[in-house]
């Protein structure tokens, strides 16, 4: 049995003496509703069973508390968080930077790599960079962006249309 209140870090859970409400809606360790009782009575019942009084829903009026083993409860929360993290889909983003004055052969070589990334299931971010006075030729950058979009449309969908970001045109493609 634990008599001191412990916390889990970011989200503090009130345990035992840390429960500040006068009355709580009490749930037994087997799930039975015990009704609204005073906090001191609930704490006494938890101690008799050598368990903890844990505030599971602090925002309700009166707060809901459950008699349980706090260590076991904390372990189950950590296990749920771990399982949720395991099921999360991780999306990797590959990035390709191009200059405005790229030669045709170099462009085809980079497009070939972009196509490979899309086939492997990566999202890709294409950045067309303007250096110095090239910023005056926005139309050339837009033509290059259109050329890349046409070359990749069979493998990737445009997730973010070409837009200006400082001195760059940025596009993001997702695999189909």
Q: What is the secondary structure topology, with strand pairs?
A:
Elements: E1 23-27, E2 33-38, H1 39-48, E3 52-57, E4 64-68, H2 70-87, E5 93-99, H3 104-119, E6 123-129, H4 138-152, E7 156-165, E8 168-175
Parallel strand pairs: 1-4, 5-6
Antiparallel strand pairs: 1-2, 3-4, 6-8, 7-8
Structure description:
It is a single chain. The chain is α/β, with parallel strands linked by helices and 176 residues long. The protein has two domains: 16-85, Ubiquitin-like (UB roll), CATH 3.10.20.80; 93-175, Translation initiation factor 3 (IF-3), C-terminal domain (Translation Initiation Factor IF3), CATH 3.30.110.10. The protein is built from four helices and eight strands. It has helices spanning 39-48, 70-87, 104-119, 138-152, and strands at residues 23-27, 33-38, 52-57, 64-68, 93-99, 123-129, 156-165, 168-175. A four-stranded mixed β-sheet has the order 2-1-4-3. Strands 5-6-8-7 form a four-stranded mixed β-sheet, covered by helices on one side. β7 and β8 (168-175) form a beta hairpin. The longest helix is centred in the middle third of the chain and has 18 residues, at 70-87. The protein is rod-shaped. The model is unreliable at 1-10 (pLDDT under 50).
């Amino acid at each position: 049995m634990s008599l001191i209140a412990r916390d889990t870090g970011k989200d503090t859970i009130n345990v035992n003496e840390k429960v500040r409400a006068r009355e709580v809606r009490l749930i037994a360790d087997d799930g039975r509703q015990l009704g609204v009782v005073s906090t001191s009575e609930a704490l006494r019942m938890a101690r008799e069973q050598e368990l903890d009084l844990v505030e599971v829903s602090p925002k309700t009026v009166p707060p809901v508390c459950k008699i349980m083993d706090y260590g076991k409860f904390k372990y189950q929360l950590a296990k749920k968080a771990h399982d949720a993290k395991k099921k999360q889909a991780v999306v990797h983003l590959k990035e390709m930077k191009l200059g405005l004055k790229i030669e045709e052969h170099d462009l085809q070589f980079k497009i070939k790599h972009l196509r490979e990334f899309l086939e492997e299931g990566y999202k890709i971010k294409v950045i067309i960079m303007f250096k110095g006075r090239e910023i005056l030729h926005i139309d050339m950058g837009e033509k290059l962006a259109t050329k890349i979009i046409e070359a990749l449309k069979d493998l990737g969908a445009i997730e973010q249309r070409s837009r200006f970001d400082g001195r760059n045109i940025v596009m993001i493609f997702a695999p189909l």
